[in-house]
Amino acid sequence: MSQNTSTPTVKLLIGGELVESRSSQWRDVVNPATQEVLARVPFATEDEMNAAVASAREAFKTWRKTPIGARARVFLKYQQLIRENMKELAALLTAEQGKTLPDAEGDIFRGLEVVEHAANIGTLQMGELANNVASGVDTYTLNQPLGVCAGITPFNFPAMIPLWMFPMAIATGNTFVLKPSEQDPMVTMRLAELAMEAGVPPGVLNVIHGGADAVNLLCDHPDIKAVSFVGSTKVGTHVYNRATANGKRAQCMMGAKNHAIVLPDAHKQQTLNNLAGAAFGAAGQRCMALSVVILVGEAQNWLPELVEKAKSLKIGAGVEAGTDVGPVVSCAALDRVSSLIAAGEKDGAKLVLDGRDPQVSGYANGNFVGPTIFAGVTPEMTIYREEIFGPVLCVVSAATLDEAIAFINANPNGNGTALFTRSGAAARHFQEEIDVGQVGINVPIPVPVPLFSFTGSRASKLGDLGPYGKQVVQFYTQTKTVTSRWFDEDEVGTAVNTTITLK
Prior knowledge:
By secondary structure, the protein is of the alpha/beta class. The chain has two domains: 12-254 and 469-482, Aldehyde Dehydrogenase, Chain A, domain 1, CATH 3.40.605.10; 259-441, Aldehyde Dehydrogenase, Chain A, domain 2. The chain is built from 16 helices and 22 strands. β15 (372-375), α13 (382-385) and β16 form a beta-alpha-beta unit. The chain is globular and about 85 Å long.
């Protein structure tokens, strides 16, 4: 932990105020292309974290009663501010995370779509009414906020994933405590500042920083009613088990091993472009990254062209024009990716493109690894079993579509999958038989727009309800059913009713 006091510090957000932490434990925020220290982020003290929760609890008393139209207008203003500050936000994101500037804008834009959806909360949070279910009896539902909710977000999408969480939680009338990744918290903090500017009242949104202690406090604190998490399977499983053991709602989007099947009838150039973009974009640091492609039948002959497509991608710093593949987020991430590539060779996979140790002019200290492709990959190999989280693509061969589907269904993860084909019959068969929550047909990264919800499945998800969309309104609200009867002023009851039926 750095103790350099001349470097800018990342603040906490507690009760509407940006607070300088009193922590003695700090971490450097490092530009992964240059190793420049951009800022120091604190691991908040227990008192500071408790103060953030207390602020959210107090703010809930009034925010929950704020008219739904007033809440919606905050997010109308917020989406405008995000658009106006897009370039600044993207520059911050690229500096601390490494992805290219266009990809950084894409990161922000996909979060912006959820903010826009939150502005429609007036229709999303409507209940139901059944009139005259018995004599003079009506039944209706209220979708009421839970209270203080919490979010724990990963390094790879420091804008999009926080924007998946707190806007919908707040729009539905809850208050929120956010813990972004300590690796790249600066763009998240700027988004929090813009939320304040948009009219989010003090205490409704709070931001803390930290590691395992912060995660555990959010899972344990009795005033927190729900926890949302995106990140690794190991941490997500811990969060889900600990939060639910404490009586909280939890949704955890976790690790993945995403596959695409390529049939010989697919449009070759479109498919190759899609495969390369989905496998190597964001340096492979996406939970929806395409990490396995299954070439079926004659499509196996496309491998050399796929390798050439990967070789054509430009490796460089995210700020440089024309860069396709930026650095991975840290030196530790680079070491891990490199060691997994070595493990692939040791296990007998054929390394047809080695992206290790690329020469990037002007960025000798960057955490760079180029597009890497293995052929002949089998399920027992480490590179197939592990989520590499780098620009590494595993290529598998299959004789038929059904063989490829069986291969995917045997994998424990279920985040996303895709099929490339021109056959409607094949596409329909695939979407019916595949056991994966999010399916793309000629779409390599099938993350749905916010009208729907993120629907990863099996080992990639814990909890019944996904982030954003209609499902997240259910997650962040408690359904209260009201059954009421009103008698006419001159109506007189004739007898005592001792049955359970309404008459």
